[in-house]
Amino acid sequence: MSAIYLIRHGQASFGKADYDQLSDKGCQQSELLGQYWQTLKTQNKPGKLFSGALLRHEQTLENFLKGYQGDKPSTVLHSGFDEFNHVDLLSRYDSQWKNYAKMAALISQKPEANKVFQKEFSLALNRWVSGKYDGDYMESWSQFKKRCITALQDVINQELDAKKEFSNTTPSNNICIFTSGGTISVLIQHILGLSDQNTLSINQQLRNTSVTKLLFTKGSLSIDYLNNYGHLTQAGHDWETFR
Questions:
Q1: In this structure, are 99 and 77 located in the same domain?
Q2: What residues make up the domain containing 218?
Q3: Short-list 180, 191, 189, CA closest to 214
Q4: Do the beta carbons of residue 149 and residue 186 sit within 8 Å?
Q5: Residues 28 and 80 in one domain
Q6: Which of 18, 88, 117, 153 is the most exposed place for a label (fewest CB within 10 A)?
Q7: What are 128-155's pLDDT values in tens digits?
Q8: Are 49 and 75 spatial neighbours (Cβ–Cβ below 8 Å)?
């Protein structure tokens, strides 16, 4: 049985003009995960790396490797693991968000700016997920889910094909995929058959740099564990962030 580790990116710049950039804490969270991984048994160490094509995914991977300090496995960028476009969601919900930088700056001046932004974002997200306005978006909720599931199946098929080509007895590689909360949530939904609202609830609970482990064989895909952030707990409660 082979393992896939879905790794959410480190803390990014939530509510800022450019979200797709890790904060200093996000970089350190990613490095902590790499250090933690280095302490695991050999069979748990990554054999293959995949990353979404967004900057925060690549930065998380880079800082993970900085902490890991081991042999660097082969790395593949796969845009199928990219997060949904939150700017598109917000601007379709409220046209004022078409000037995202200006709106982010205005909200940042308000008391409890993060809560204000989160409320706006939640309303925009629910509009998108409702399916009532699919034609408004560059990528609908159903299209996003299909893209993410297809990307995961691509990775699984590659691994299964490689085993066939080289040897059925070859030890399986542990595969790490650096991605985002929305992507991880819909993959969990796919495996467990969850409703959209339960999927959004999971998305809200995923910590930065948390790890979700999947197990697969030919014709079988399951979840071993979800949202593991033990490396952050060890470092202290302040390291456990959601956004």
A1: no
A2: 2-84+139-239
A3: 191
A4: yes
A5: yes
A6: 18
A7: 999 999 999 999 999 999 999 999 999 9
A8: yes
